[in-house]
Amino acid sequence: MGAHPAGPAGPLRTIAVTPGEPAGIGPDLCVALAFAPPPGARLVIVGDPDVLVERSRLLGRPVVVRTWQPGTAAMPAPAGTLDVAVVRTAAPVQAGRLDAANARYVLDTISSAVRGCLSGSFDALVTAPVHKGVINDAGLPFTGHTEMLAELTGTPRVVMMLVGGGLRVALATTHLPLAAVPAAITVPSLTCTLRILDAALRRDFGIAHPRILVSGLNPHAGEGGHLGREEIDVIAPVIGALQAEGIDARGPLPADTLFNPDRLADCDAVLAMFHDQGLPVLKYASFGAGVNVTLGLPIIRTSVDHGTALDLAGSGRAHDGSLREAVALAIDLAWHRST
Q: CATH 3.40.718.10 in the chain, residues?
């Protein structure tokens, strides 16, 4: 199973990047991108240019900011230059210090970038981390990027997948207490998730015949019903029905032996039943360089696999590996979707 191929030569893709929480490391990562821009794309930072300039000064890596407008030609910026679609903060930003006054700004950057993707101005969206707590403290209902993107694009169901370390791991359920997971795994829900995963592997990853390994929920995949019946009553029937549709889904397989090299060599993605069943393996294999991909949206969205790291903001110690991987994957997916 491969992470993602090198982006092919072709027209430049315009990739929107939202810096996330302005007091966190998102602006630091955007500054780093300015000095080693990825090939094959023009990056447009959707945010406040003053925050980026000030953060670059703090880091000792001053950048030049150019204002981006829709319709401008997709030309890569020179090293040390950032193209910025301007969205202004409401209050001054201090690295490492949250301010609820700027919570609306964070959401506005996301909304603006999504509008650009839907209009065709951007070919993909890459998001740096936000701080959910300060957004909610500001009185703004927000459960996460994924839910907001689904609402903004009118998408009834999306699927979370992480890519890294040679793995693609999608989730049947995401941020739920363990006690709530079994009830959330239903025939309609699991069927929809697998269809979205199969379609995304074909359309966005360019895999003509995706092979998907599906984990069981219970230890030993239920041990024939002795350790739980979800495999018998839900997971196996869904797999059988989808196989009849031509989807190459296999399982349910015991999660403790699913991630061995022999099995992974014969698949393109794994569907885990819950968050901490699949992601510890992937994050062990790719920590600091994993990418979160939202499947099922009408737009392409990738994201870093880490948080705002307020303690590192402005220090020069933030690692940009995950953001660079997210940008590289967004370029690849944009190319596949356009062909």
A: 1-155+297-339, 158-295
